[in-house]
Amino acid sequence: MSTEPETTEDGEPGTPGAETAAAGAAEGEGGEAGAGQLSEAEAELRAQQIERERIAQRKAEKKAPIEAGAKLSGKAADLLAAVRAVESGEKPAATVFAEPEPAPRRSAPEPVRRPQPVAAETVTASAAPAPEAVQAVRRVLAEGGAPEALALQAAEALGEGADELLRADPWQLLRVAGVRPEQADGFARALLGAECGPDDERRGRAVTVWLLDQAALAGHTALEMPALLAALAQRGVPNPDGAVQDTIAEGDALVFQDALEEPGAPAPAPAEEDGADEERPVRVLVGLERYALAEESLADGLARLVNSVPKQDGSAEEWERLAAAAPGSTGELIRAVAGHGLVLHTGGEASLAEPAALLRAARSLGLRAWAATHGPIGRDRFAALLRRSDQAADSPGRTGEAPNADSPVATVSGLLTGLEGPGRAADGALDLDLLVVLDAPQLDVETAALLTESLPDGARLLLAGDPAVLWSVGPGRVFADLLAARICPQVASRLPDPGPLGELVSGVGVGELNQVEAPGKELVIVPVRDAGEAVHRTVQLVVDSVPRAIGVPAEETQVITPGHGGAVGTRALNAALKERLNPGPGRFGGFDPGDRIVHSPVPGRALPGRVVKADAEGLHLSCAGETVVVPKERVEHSVRHGWAMTAHQAVGSRWPAVVVVLPGDAAQALSRPWVYTAFGRADRHLSVVHGVEQALPRAVAEVPAKPRTTRLPVLLAPQLAGE
């Protein structure tokens, strides 16, 4: 069976259970990158594990119900029936939520408030499945006719005793990324024979969890109950209500009721007034525990920042002096950060000068101030911007610093794992006073929860980013939800992106595809008629036209296309570009020394780099100047050729020249955020290989970001009411 369906975009939002969402995750998933010591991937996975355990411990010990939602029982179950009756006009099964008590949470010792530092020795070789365990899974897969190449992934996903679990419940194969229900059905028929049937309770539970996983890959932190039931019916589950009930009873999912505030409705009645809650409309949601707890932890952490008094480093007069000396919205930003624990900053590429000025001002007052970016390219660019601003300002407090000294900038993943940044104090909190997070739209709920819970009391957090770019690959829309909630100061930059490209991208952000003058050939449109011509013209641009006419070499030109599959996807384009730029036999998993690659150490991360060599240890890569060794068994799932990539892989990075390829079959994949993100990756030159005709201006004008179902606005609402 093939477990890698074609997709248009990594993690692009879609309908529950869509194959594109499953493929998006499969394309981005990978394994640990290091060998013999703690790698970035291992450290991040360990940090996430610690954070999830800490969140689960805290929630398990809470005796009071969560105000914004909890498992349904009693009156809540009656409300669910009422909601369904209104929505569908049909009487639902009365036994859907027969269990009156919440599913038991695992017991836990007294939790610490924040995760402790992750040391290299805490991640041992036992993190990887034992070879004999993988071999046992391989035998089961072979018996069921499934690809034996899935053995390592299955052993990792299912843990100890994975082979026995697969024999007892073959549909657990759905927990392996990229496997679809029809494939798991075939595997189950081969193992179970006559016992296998569509009404098997094991199948219903597994498909329910799979659909929630697909929803998470599409960006949702939970699904509304009617959408989940409809998706289960489409997947051939004869009793969707029963499948959801079984899944909740087994503790594989949680169910919530979130109150809906109707526009113009009066404030809710006091809690003690009888019947007040029953009259309020609710929506019923089902989600996976890891995302539900992360979203609740994030709301708690944000509330702590909003309601706390920032540490008084520097007097109010000193902050005001720095703000008064800064121009325009930069001064507004400094004043906002001076008096608040949480501040939001919006703007394009040019607006990065304002967080840079804030960081320099804070450090001049003695604050331990750091910035974090989505990826290494963004990190290096912001570090260079800081150095330039320091040299221009000739700050007396930094005159002894060499021009090439390390700047206080890290990647988000490096900051959290301790591989970059200031490290952590004895209590596990990050050793800083101010954290500036750039590329904030790329924060998913789990990463954002880790960040907020890692900040010490009295610290300040600035989330900065361009709200028009694509949202995070992981579930949630944290930055957009916070902007909508308005629970903290928001500063909009008034610095426009310069030049013809800045004018073009700014227009796309407001839904207009403008004709711009490009006297320096900053923008070139290359019309094409079919897929073959699109590939040919793309290679011609990268190899010949852009280097000759613009002066940007091929190694500094990035190709961006809507998807991995198809005649003009990343696979086809990378094959054509490799043939021209670095031909070779591809002796190690299709790669040769010198190949441009994209390494995904964990889902949602894309690290551009190059292949250095291959040996018995694995594939040796150079990513942002750091050496990474990918074991042979990980290469297929975590390394791709990188001359061409998707917009989600490119977000957070910029290149001197970019070639955006829009083949005719990509029209349905286009949206305003996609076009804005792809066009905005170019610094000096943008070529558009244009084969979608009127679909491009239509997407810019009429296709906004696909909605995501999240609970963060509801969880933050009490904070807004408190103000």
Strand content: 5-15%
Distance between the termini: 56 Å
Low-confidence stretches: 2-8, 10-37, 62-80, 82-126, 263-267, 395-405
- Overall strand count: 19
**Largest sheet: number of strands, sense, barrel closure:** 6 strands, parallel
Q: State Rg.
A: 26 Å
Short synopsis of the structure:
The protein is 41% helix and 13% strand. It contains 26 helices and 19 strands.
Explain this structure to me?
The chain is an alpha/beta fold and 723 residues long. 41% of the residues lie in helices and 13% in strands. The protein is built from 26 helices and 19 strands. Strand 7 (434-437), helix 17 and strand 8 form a beta-alpha-beta unit. The model is unreliable at 2-8, 10-37, 62-80, 82-126, 263-267 and 395-405 (pLDDT under 50).
